[in-house]
Amino acid sequence: KPVTRDNLLDGYARADRTLGTQYELFFSSPQRQVYKRVQLFRPYAPVHKIHDVETLDKSREWINLIMPLAGRLDKFRVFMEMFAETCIRQDKR
What we know:
Elements: E1 8-16, E2 20-28, E3 34-43, E4 48-49, E5 54-57, H1 73-90
Antiparallel strand pairs: 1-2, 2-3, 3-4, 3-5
C-alpha cells in the first residue's frame, strides 16, 4: 500500500539556514505496529527523496522507564494510572 496523506501519523522537520529542511514522516500500514518512514530533504530548491520508503516493525520494541521513587510514591501511582489509561487501554498495546 503506498503512503498517502490519509495514513500520515506523525512527522518532524529539521531546518538548517544554509542547507534547507529535512523531513521525517511516519505513516500507518495495514499491519498493527508496523509503520512506514519516509525521509525527505528540501534544499532551498525542489524536494529530494533521501531513502526509499522503509518498513519499521515496532511490535517487539520495549520502553523501559527508570524513575527515582523515594518520596514520590503518590506521584508514581498517578503516573501509572495515566500511563495505563493512555498507552494500554486506549492504544490496546
